[in-house]
């Protein structure tokens, strides 16, 4: 794979991650489950009960979150990196800062409630779409308003 191919994949995966978090912030994550493989993992990194396996569990998490009522949130990505494993598998690393609070905008400006390292394993699926085999958050800093999390059963 040449540098141009690597750059194109970097751009595509950055676009996918931005679309994922945009959906979470602006559409209650109603499409978030579509970004995962059938056995895809979404792990909030906040304990064993905050790991959701499969699109249906991801969909249920975001549906529950929407049902809690209005919440203003922005998930910001920085330091985006990729490692090409092979033509169908890429490791993605970045830092996510989460600003969130229950209620409608405009909220008082405060520090991020969560800064996490995010590690994704992305795979190119048969339909030529990149999807998350895993999206794992590793919290580095937390404070202020608690992140929302539905404990798995």
Give your account of this protein's structure.
The chain has 153 residues and is of the alpha+beta class. It has a single domain (3-142), classed as Nuclear Transport Factor 2, Chain: A, CATH 3.10.450. The protein is 24% helix and 42% strand. The protein is built from two helices and six strands, in the order H-E-E-H-E-E-E-E. A six-stranded mixed beta sheet has the order 2-1-6-5-4-3, with helices on one face. Strand 3 (71-86) and strand 4 form a beta hairpin. The radius of gyration is 15 Å and the shape is globular.
Task: Explain the layout of strands and helices.
Elements lengths: L2 H24 L9 E8 L7 E3 L1 H13 L3 E16 L2 E14 L11 E11 L5 E13 L11
Parallel strand pairs: 1-6
Antiparallel strand pairs: 1-2, 3-4, 4-5, 5-6
Largest sheet data: 6 strands, mixed
- Total strand segments: 6
Taken from the alpha-carbon principal axes, the silhouette is globular
User: What would you call the structural class?
Assistant: alpha+beta
Secondary-structure arrangement, i.e. CATH architecture: Roll
Kindly estimate the percentage of residues that lie in beta strands according to DSSP.
35-45%
- Number of DSSP helical runs: 2
Mean residue pLDDT: 94
| CATH fold type | Nuclear Transport Factor 2, Chain: A
């Amino acid at each position: 794979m040449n540098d141009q191919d690597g750059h194109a994949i970097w751009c595509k995966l950055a676009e996918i991650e931005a679309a994922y978090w945009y959906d979470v912030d602006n559409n209650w994550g109603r499409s978030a489950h579509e970004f995962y493989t059938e056995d895809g993992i979404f792990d909030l990194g906040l304990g064993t009960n905050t790991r959701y396996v499969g699109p249906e569990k991801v969909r249920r998490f975001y549906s529950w979150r929407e049902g809690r009522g209005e919440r203003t949130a922005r998930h910001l990505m920085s330091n985006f990196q990729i490692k090409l494993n092979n033509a169908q598998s890429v490791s993605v690393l970045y830092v996510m800062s989460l600003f969130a609070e229950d209620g409608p905008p405009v909220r008082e400006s405060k520090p991020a409630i969560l800064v996490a390292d995010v590690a994704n394993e992305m795979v190119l699926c048969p339909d030529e779409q990149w999807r998350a085999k895993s999206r794992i958050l590793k919290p580095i800093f937390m404070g202020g308003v608690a992140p929302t999390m539905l404990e798995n059963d």
